[in-house]
Each structure stands twice: as C-alpha cells, then as structure tokens.
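Re: that backbone. Tokens:
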C-alpha cells in the first residue's frame, strides 16, 4: 500500500493543475493582457514631449494591470476548491487523502509554485515594455532603489490575493457565493469604506484591507495614493495575515464538515 505523504499529495495537485488546459489559458491571458495594458499606459503617458516619468509613475504604470487581473487569479483560486465540489471530485480527493488539511496545504503550495514564476516574469516584462516609451535617461534598471522590491511585490501580491480566494473557496464551497464575497472584499469594500469613513479614520483603516496591503508591496510612495499605504515590510505581514486567516478559516470548515 502506498503511503500518503504531503509530497505525494502536492505532486497530485500539481498534476491536476498542469493537466487542465484552462490553467495555461488563464496564465497566458493574464500575462498577455497585463503586459499589453502596461505598454498601452506607458505609450499613452509619453505621447507628448515633456511627460513626467518619475520612478513612482513608471512603476505605477507598469503594474496597474496587476490590480485588474488579480481578480482572475482570485477566481482561479476559488475554483480550485469549488470546482471539485461542483463536479463531485472532492469526494474522491478526500477518500484518497483523508487528512483534509494536507489537501488544502497541497492546493496552496501548488497554486504558489505555478503562479509565482509566471507573475514575476510578467512583472519584469511589464516594466520593460511600459517604460520603453519613456526617454532612455528616465528608465529604471534593476539596480535603482526599490525596483527589485517592486518587481518581487508585483509577483507576490496577486498570488496572495489568489490564496485568499482559495481560502474563501474552501470556506464557502459554492463558486458564485465565494466569487461574490471575494469581489466585495477586494473591490467593493475599499470603495465603500473610502467614501463612508471620516478621513482621520480611513487613513488608519483602509491601508490594512487586503488589496491595499497587497498594492503596498510594489508601490513606490509619492503622496499620490488615494489613502496612506503601509511600508513594504508591514504590508507583507498584513498580507500574509489575510492569507493565513482565509486559509485557516477554510481549513477549519473543511475539517469539520462532510464534502
């Protein structure tokens, strides 16, 4: 009898993701659209002579697509769990691997293993393409302050949001419900809170919501943000906290109820 170990469970989950054509279609779509959007924004910003090209502006233009297409990765994370519930495959998964925490952990690791290299590559290419329209003297290199941190942050932020989606999928089990909660958390909550909270309160609260903390991982602060952002170190801790909270909540629910 083959012993069920975490490396074997991880290998199985990686095999599931690699075997699905939709995985590569999604990653390819995100990569192409993110780079295309970065190039379009960079071209538009430099159509006229004398355009401003500060480091903060160059990085912001390059990574604007990260915010948009994080929603697609979040939906992918949700459907890694809810898709198995809707198809009934989850029963076979839990029959083969009774330790449900191991299943969720393997799904988490598999998503990160596949998505992180893709998003890092997308970040590098987006920055190169976006600033190719700027004057050569203004372009950023890997050795410029904050550039490598911004690239790493641009790779990590959407993956972190996708893992939050994975946790929500495990917590709620239903695709439509989980997607609704995800959109409310990522898109609606920041907009509503920014308009309803007093400015003195909003500056202290909004920077801790998931999307703001994730954005702070790759943003260069120049005072132009809609609300005060955390520094990268605290932002990484807050983002990790949201990921752990979502996965822990999903793991507890998986452990306590039937498939």
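Recovered sequence:
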């Amino acid at each position: 009898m083959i012993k069920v170990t975490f490396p074997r469970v991880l290998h199985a989950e990686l095999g599931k993701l690699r075997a699905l054509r939709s995985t590569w279609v999604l990653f390819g779509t995100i990569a192409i659209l993110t780079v295309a959007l970065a190039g379009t924004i960079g071209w538009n910003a430099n159509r006229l002579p004398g355009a401003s090209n500060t480091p903060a502006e160059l990085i912001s233009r390059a990574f604007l697509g990260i915010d948009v297409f994080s929603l697609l990765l979040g939906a992918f994370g949700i459907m890694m769990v809810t898709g198995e519930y809707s198809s009934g495959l989850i029963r076979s998964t839990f029959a083969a691997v009774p330790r449900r925490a191991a299943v969720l952990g393997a799904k988490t690791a598999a998503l990160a293993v596949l998505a992180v290299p893709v998003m890092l590559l997308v970040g590098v290419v987006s920055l190169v393409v976006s600033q190719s329209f700027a004057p050569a003297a203004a372009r950023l290199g890997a050795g410029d302050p904050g550039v490598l941190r911004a690239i790493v942050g641009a790779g990590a932020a959407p993956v972190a949001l996708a893992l939050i989606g994975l946790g929500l999928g495990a917590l709620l089990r239903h695709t439509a419900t989980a997607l609704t909660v995800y959109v409310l958390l990522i898109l609606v909550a920041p907009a509503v809170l920014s308009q309803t909270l007093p400015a003195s309160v909003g500056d202290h609260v909004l920077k801790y919501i998931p999307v703001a903390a994730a954005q702070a991982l790759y943003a260069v602060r120049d005072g132009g943000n809609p609300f005060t952002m955390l520094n990268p170190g605290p932002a990484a801790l807050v983002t990790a906290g949201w990921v752990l909270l979502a996965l822990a909540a999903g793991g507890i629910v998986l452990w306590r109820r039937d498939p």
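Residues 6-256 form one domain. The two ends are 25 Å apart (CA to CA).
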